[in-house]
């Protein structure tokens, strides 16, 4: 049996081995998930043995994942994998509480997603492929997006529901989830190669830096892609994520502040156009501004969400004791409201802290790779992907922003979302040791 490493790594702040930190955090996460599932089991029929399926699969994923990462990535960031497993396990508990019929399916997706995380983390090839074949991957991603526009389906089968999935029989996948990572990799690779030129542009060697093809070209391309996503798919959340991540990366690469101003102007134009052209955008803005006159109609979902937050108090009603199922689609778009009702303010702050910690670990990886522009920009872009998506849905559920229809990473129900969130974490783990 291999002796445990006791050397101080670059991600350790104390003389505690990475393996020990990760193992301890995983044990704490497993205890939390077990206690919550046990509470649900005691409230239901004790004969429902399938209730143990999630904790068994979660434990296998945690053990196998820890052992493989310990063997192949000894100098990894020890916080990323436990954070991801804790949030996902909590998400499975939520889905078992809110929509039990979907719990086993989400658990199976957890196993698949863990396998994907280990592949991209352990093998050195994914980073190389994302950089070398960026144009081919971008074309493939855009082809899938176009295919969704033409052949898209909605698993619910509801008339008029957004058709954002490609499916075969009972298996569905949302291509826009994969396209997010592909676009981050493409932008990081492109801007990393153009970094010296962009920096020369931003220091005033051109009279009009904003008109430089190296800046104006990608800006207009991303704005056009975001608009196309909004127009053809009515997917406000994905369009916003695309453009906000792009603005962040190009600003970091160029250091040109006016780019942010220009991006805000383009975003405002897109918002005005979307509000006047699309009923779904107009509905979300109107409900955001004043939901109370239609609390039993079009604004029922957001009003019930606000009531869930109000009834949760500081420590919540307790798992299984609240009424979050009054909120339509609570297991997908509104899991944050369910957490607020049953775990209270304490649970809300914990969720925000975990997501913030994951984002900060990714940012830390980026700052340590400043001499390698691609690595730095890719780590920051992946971190911002998690941050922006989380902020959009949490602010929407709290009525701080209009609802965008995105999921809360690691917590919400959705196989393709969970899979791509784990791939994101796996890439961050790989970047932490490159």
Can you put this structure into words, describing what you see?
With 434 residues, the chain is an all-alpha fold. The protein has 16 helices and 2 strands. It has helices spanning 18-43, 53-72, 80-98, 103-122, 125-132, 134-151, 175-193, 195-205, 213-233, 236-254, 258-277, 279-289, 300-312, 335-367, 373-397, 415-431; strands spanning 166-168, 171-173. A two-stranded antiparallel ribbon has the order 1-2. A hairpin with a 2-residue loop joins β1 and β2. Mean pLDDT is 83; it is low at 1-13.
Please give the number of β-strands. 2
Major sheet: size, sense and barrel closure? Answer: 2 strands, antiparallel
Give, in spatial order, the strands making up the sheet with the most strands: 1-2
Share of residues in helices:
55-70%
The first-to-last residue Cα distance is: 27 Å
What portion of residues belong to β-strands?
under 5%
Class derived from helix and strand content: mainly alpha
Radius of gyration: 22 Å
Average pLDDT, to the nearest integer?
83
State the order of secondary-structure elements, H for helix, E for strand. HHHHHHEEHHHHHHHHHH
Question: What are the segments in which pLDDT stays under 50 over at least 5 consecutive residues?
Answer: 1-13
Oligomer: single chain
Give the number of helices: 16
Overall 3D shape: globular
């Amino acid at each position: 049996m291999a002796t445990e490493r006791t050397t101080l790594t670059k991600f350790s702040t104390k003389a505690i081995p990475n393996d020990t930190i990760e193992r301890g955090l995983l044990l704490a996460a497993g205890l939390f998930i077990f206690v919550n599932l046990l509470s649900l089991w005691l409230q239901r029929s004790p004969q429902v043995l399938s209730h143990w399926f999630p904790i068994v699969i979660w434990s296998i994923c945690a053990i196998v994942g820890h052992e493989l990462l310990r063997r192949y990535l000894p100098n990894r960031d020890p916080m990323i994998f436990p954070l991801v497993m804790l949030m996902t396990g909590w998400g499975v508990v939520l889905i078992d509480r809110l929509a039990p019929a979907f719990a086993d399916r989400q658990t199976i997706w957890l196993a698949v997603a863990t396998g994907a995380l280990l592949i991209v983390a352990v093998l050195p090839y994914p980073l190389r492929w994302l950089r070398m074949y960026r144009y081919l991957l971008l074309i493939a991603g855009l082809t899938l997006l176009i295919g969704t526009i033409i052949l898209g389906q909605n698993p619910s089968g509801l008339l008029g529901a957004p058709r954002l999935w490609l499916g075969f029989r009972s298996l569905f996948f949302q291509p826009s989830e994969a396209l997010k990572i592909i676009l981050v990799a493409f932008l990081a690779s492109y801007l990393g190669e153009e970094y010296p030129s962009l920096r020369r542009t931003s220091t005033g060697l051109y009279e009009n830096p904003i008109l430089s093809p190296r800046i104006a070209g990608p800006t207009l391309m991303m704005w056009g892609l975001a608009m196309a996503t909004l127009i053809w798919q009515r997917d406000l959340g994905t369009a916003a994520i695309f453009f906000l991540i792009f603005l962040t990366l190009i600003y970091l690469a160029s250091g040109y502040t006016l780019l942010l101003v220009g991006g805000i102007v383009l975003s405002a134009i897109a918002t005005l156009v979307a509000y006047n052209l699309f009923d779904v955008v107009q509905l979300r803005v109107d409900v955001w501004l004043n939901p109370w006159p239609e609390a039993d109609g079009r604004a029922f979902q957001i009003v019930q969400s606000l009531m869930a937050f109000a009834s949760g108090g500081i420590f919540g009603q307790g798992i299984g004791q609240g009424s979050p199922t009054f909120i339509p689609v609570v297991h997908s778009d509104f899991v944050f409201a369910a957490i607020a009702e049953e775990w209270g303010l304490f649970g809300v702050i914990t969720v925000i802290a975990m997501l913030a910690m994951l984002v900060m670990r990714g940012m830390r990886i980026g700052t340590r790779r400043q001499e390698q522009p691609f690595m730095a920009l890719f780590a920051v872009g992946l971190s911002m992907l998690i941050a922006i998506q989380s902020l959009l849905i949490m602010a929407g559920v709290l009525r701080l922003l209009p609802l965008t229809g995105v999921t809360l990473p690691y917590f919400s129900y959705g196989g393709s979302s969970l899979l791509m969130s784990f791939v994101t974490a796996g890439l961050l783990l790989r970047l932490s040791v490159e």
